[in-house]
Amino acid sequence: MKSLNSMKVFVVGTLSIGLFSSAALIPAIAQELPRVYDASMSRDQQIALAGSAAPAEVSSKATVYVLGPKGYEKAREGTNGFNCIVTRHFVKPAETTIEPQCFDAEGSRTLLPVYLHGEELRTNGKSEAEIKADVASGYKEGRYQYPSKPGFLYMMSSENRLSAITDQSSGIFPPHLMFYAPNITTKDIGLDTQSLEKLDYLGMTHPGAGDNLIVVIPVASKSPAGTTGR
Fold first, then answer.
1. What is the C-alpha separation between 27 and 33, in angstroms, rounded?
2. Tens digits of per-residue pLDDT, 75-112?
């Protein structure tokens, strides 16, 4: 696996513990995911895919967005402050990423609007470079805000396609959790850059920056020989 520190494919700096019930929501989708994720996917499929990012106990009570012909549309109003959505960006002219994620309240307040506006620009014909420039200027001008306190977003779907599909790779990235870590550096977590790059279960998106996130791929624990797990 590539080091997490090399996974810098997220529009705003973004990238399971075991098998949660949410994974059962998308067995059919796994065989039907297109190279270009767009509004042609049915609303039910989009809702299921978005919900697969978090445990069902969370996603079933979250607000859900789906991608329509003119950008994102709210498909369901939630009750727990979380927002689930499948974001994307073009990695090739005929290929997009597929990024199911569920934001907590802080991420919904700060990061979600960046994705919503970015998709509005995309549907209006803006290029990925233009969208990236808008994000940068938006933060600089104060139109966008970084998370102001610790929090996290779920990206626990087994359908995280975060890079291009090649002959050697499906582009699938493991289910993981992301924690807001504005301005946190590798030193702050007791590591140097080289040490962090060697880890397959821990990484950062933009160390030291306001949009930095800590990425954690949970690893199932193994019970000592002769014992059984609870």
1. 11
2. 999 999 999 999 999 999 999 999 999 999 999 999 99
Indicate whether 109 belongs to any domain. yes
CA distance 161 to 167: 15
Q: Which residues pair with 155 in a beta bridge?
A: 176
Token output for 70 = 């003119």
Strand bridging mode 83-87 / 63-68: parallel
Number of domains in the chain: 1
Residue 110's alpha-carbon distances to 74, 115, 155, 171, in angstroms, are 17, 10, 17, 27
Mean of the per-residue pLDDT values of the chain: 84
Contact between 97 and 89 (Cβ < 8 Å):
yes
Specify if 222 maps to a domain: no
Evaluate if pTM is beyond 0.90: no
166 pLDDT tier (thresholds 50, 70, 90): confident
Give the full edge-to-edge strand order of the sheet including 71-76.
Answer: 71-76, 63-68, 83-87, 99-103, 152-155, 176-180, 213-216, 202-204
Q: Are 228 and 199 in contact (CB under 8 A)?
A: no
Residue 225, in any domain of the structure:
no
Domain extent at residue 49 = 4-216
Confidence band of 221 (pLDDT split at 50, 70, 90): low
Residue 162 in any domain: the answer is yes
pLDDT, average across residues 42-49 = 97
How high is the pLDDT of residue 24? 34
Burial (CB < 10 A; 0-12, 13-18, 19+), residue 56, is middle
